[in-house]
Structure formats: C-alpha cells, structure tokens
C-alpha cells in the first residue's frame, strides 16, 4: 500500500520513509507503521511498570522512609538496583514524548495544528500535576509537587513554539541544554532576589516560598531531553533493519560517552565516581549518577540503556507483550490510576494492621510519623505489592486502550 507524502508544512527532512502516526491515528497505518508504534509503546509500557515499582516502594517500603536507596553508605545492592532501574522511567517518557510529537507531524498534522495541540496538552498536563497528581501522592490539599508530568507538560509548551524551528536546530538546542546546564550548578539563585523561585522551577530542585511545595523536576533540563527526542524522530521512520542499526549505534555511543565521562574525564555529574569497599559497590558508585536535576551522565546512561531495551522488546513475544502494550498505549490513564491505587492500598493495609489513617496524608517529607506508627514492609513484600498493583491495572489499561482504538473522540487524545 502506498502512503501519502508528508504535508508541505513539515520540514523536508521528515520524508525519510513512510509516515508513521500517533496511536490516536493508528487505523490508517501500514504494518510497518504499526510496528514502529508498538516498539515505542512496548518500551513505554515497561518503564510504566518500573515507575509503578518506584512509587509502590515509596508508599510501602520501610527503608524508603529512612534514607535514599542510592546512598551508598546505607543501601544494599538489591535496594540500589531496585531504585536504579527506575531511573530509566523519566528520561524514557520525556524522550519518547518528543519522538511522538515528531511522528504526529509526519502522520498528518500541519505544523500549526501540532503546535496548538502540543500547547494545549502541555497546559493540561501541568494542570493535572497541580491538582489530581499532587493530591494523589499526598492525600492533602494544597500541595504543589512538581514531578515528571509537570516536566513533560512544560516541555510540550516549550515544544509548541520550538517546533517551528528546523528540526536540526531543535536537536542542537536539546543537546546544548542537556550537556550545558550543569555548568550553572554553582549559581547562587539568591542573587536573583524576587526571581529566585523561577530558578527553582527551571533549574534546581527545592521548595517554593509561601506554599507547601517541592519542585522535584526542574523543567529546563527535561525540556532538553524532549527536544532531543523530537530531533531524532526521523530515526524512527527508517526501514526496519536500518532503524535497528541506527538505534543500536546511538545507544552504544551514548553508553560509551557515559563511560568516558564517568571513568576518565570526570565531567557531567556533580557526584563523582569513588572507590568503595568491594567491586560490587565500586560498580554501584560508577552508575550512581544524579537525577535531580538530570545530569549529562544520567541522561547518557539511562537513554542508552532504554534504547537497547527498545531493541530487545521489539522481538518480545508471549503473554508479557500485550500487558506492556496495554500500559504503553494508555500512559497517562495508567499513571493517574496507579498513584491512587498504590497510595489507597497502603492506607487500607495500614489501617487494617492498626496504623491510624491520619498518619498517611502528607507522606512526602513526613515519613517519620509513619515509622513511629510502625508502618513499612521489607523489600520482598514491596515486590509482591508491585505485582498486585500491576495485576489490577492491566485489565483497566487494556479496557481503555480498546476505547482509544475504537473511538476517535478528541478528548481521548488528552488522556
């Protein structure tokens, strides 16, 4: 079947191969186009499952309330690995969001339509973070907790303007932001006076004055990751074998650059590698990169691993594949559900075990109250709760994926 040429409003470099489209436009895809989307959605499904693990650990794990699992002076290898693997989530989400914006343009949206949609969806995500998501994590109101949904929303708002630039310029700007923002690490935001909170929102994690809040994901570094995803969009339009080779080459280049920067140059992360007491902890220190904000080394390592996983998952068959696709085709829906499900289960199980319900609201930054009440599980039990949450989510995500496949209502593209 022949495919239409890319619309004239898309840059000429978009016409690399047959157009792909967003999941919302899936009915018109060829088998090759659908395979591209499945490759993206399967990786997205995997990182959603890992993200659920991270948040279940936050709500259920006893040690999560006591210290950071990446604190090499207190952690264990199992706990460190459980946390490190979830580092893949945010950069994969943001990068794939950039890729998806590019593919939507090639799939039929004019640049003006794509800009309007990206702007409105970005604003919607920011609103959700400030309301539904923040309350789900805290069960308190008001509390401003700016995490990955906020970062994606802000990045989409920026992308709605930047996509009018040539793709190569967007890619170059993304690389400049990701590689260069670390140079500003020593800047004293207090010198900005009344504008200092803007530095927190854009560049450095921390609370905002005058309101119960915490900015976990400063927006600018994550915007750089989305711009890189958009700029590399044509790679996902290549013929299958060329696409695999290109993705593999990029992944290996990212990991090799990480290894050189980490082990030789000592550049790109505020937390340098240090020798530990044994080889295993040496290796843990080597990959113990900084997420808040995402350092250059963090982005190189996590995106390199994620792209290799994408190649492996492309060949995945069996019962796990439809599970990951269900999550990956309904990312926002599944994200919102899992917060309330995991937090609600923690409260229900805690109350059933004699923990007062009043100990659970405001869990972020107030873990000591839950510890004193006797709350918390060991890591094996946390994994059990993770599988329970995933099992409950699967039929719900699968149902909503079916709704999106059968219907073309505009509001579905916002969920």
TrEMBL record:
Coiled coil: none
Domain Heparan-alpha-glucosaminide N-acetyltransferase catalytic positions: 36-249
Superkingdom of source: Bacteria
Transmembrane helix in keyword set: yes
Residue spans crossing the bilayer: 84-103, 123-141, 147-165, 172-195, 215-238, 247-268, 295-313, 333-355, 375-401
Keyword tags: Membrane, Transmembrane, Transmembrane helix
The name this protein goes by in its record: Heparan-alpha-glucosaminide N-acetyltransferase domain-containing protein
Originating species: Lysobacter gummosus
């Amino acid at each position: 079947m022949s495919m239409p040429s890319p619309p004239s409003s898309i840059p000429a470099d978009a016409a690399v191969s047959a157009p792909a489209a967003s999941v919302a436009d899936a009915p018109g895809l060829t088998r090759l186009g659908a395979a591209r989307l499945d490759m993206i959605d399967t990786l997205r499904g995997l990182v959603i499952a890992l993200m659920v693990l991270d948040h279940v650990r936050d709500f259920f794990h006893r040690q999560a309330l006591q210290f950071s699992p990446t604190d090499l002076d207190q952690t264990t290898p199992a706990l460190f690995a459980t946390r490190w693997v979830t580092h893949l989530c945010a950069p994969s989400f943001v990068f794939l969001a950039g890729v998806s914006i590019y593919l939507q343009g090639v799939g039929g949206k004019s640049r003006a339509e794509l800009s309007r949609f990206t702007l409105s969806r970005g604003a919607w995500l920011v609103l959700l973070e400030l309301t539904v998501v923040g309350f789900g994590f805290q069960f308190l109101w008001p509390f401003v907790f700016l995490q990955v949904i906020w970062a994606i929303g802000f990045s989409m708002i920026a992308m709605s303007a930047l996509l009018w630039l040539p793709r190569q310029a967007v890619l170059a700007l993304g690389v400049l932001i990701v590689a260069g923002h670390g140079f500003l690490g020593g800047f004293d935001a207090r010198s900005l006076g009344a504008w200092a909170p803007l530095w927190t929102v854009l560049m450095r994690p921390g609370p905002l004055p005058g309101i119960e809040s915490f900015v976990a994901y400063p927006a600018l570094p994550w915007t750089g990751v989305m711009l890189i995803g958009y700029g590399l969009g044509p790679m996902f339009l290549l013929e299958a074998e060329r696409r695999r080779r290109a993705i593999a080459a990029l992944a290996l280049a990212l990991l090799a650059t990480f290894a050189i920067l980490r082990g030789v140059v000592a550049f790109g992360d505020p937390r340098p590698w240090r020798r530990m007491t044994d080889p295993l902890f040496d290796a843990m220190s080597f990959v113990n990169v900084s997420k808040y904000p995402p350092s250059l080394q963090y982005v190189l390592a996590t995106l390199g691993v994620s792209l290799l996983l994408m190649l492996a998952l492309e060949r995945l068959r069996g019962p796990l594949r439809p599970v990951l696709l269900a999550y990956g085709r309904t990312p926002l829906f599944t994200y919102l559900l899992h917060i309330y499900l995991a937090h609600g289960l923690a409260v229900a199980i805690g109350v059933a075990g004699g923990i007062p319900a009043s100990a659970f609201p405001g869990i972020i930054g107030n873990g000591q109250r839950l510890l004193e009440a006797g709350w918390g599980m060991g890591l094996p039990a946390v994994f059990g709760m993770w599988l329970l949450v995933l099992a409950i989510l699967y039929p719900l995500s699968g149902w909503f994926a079916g709704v999106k496949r059968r219907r073309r209502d505009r509001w579905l593209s916002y969920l």
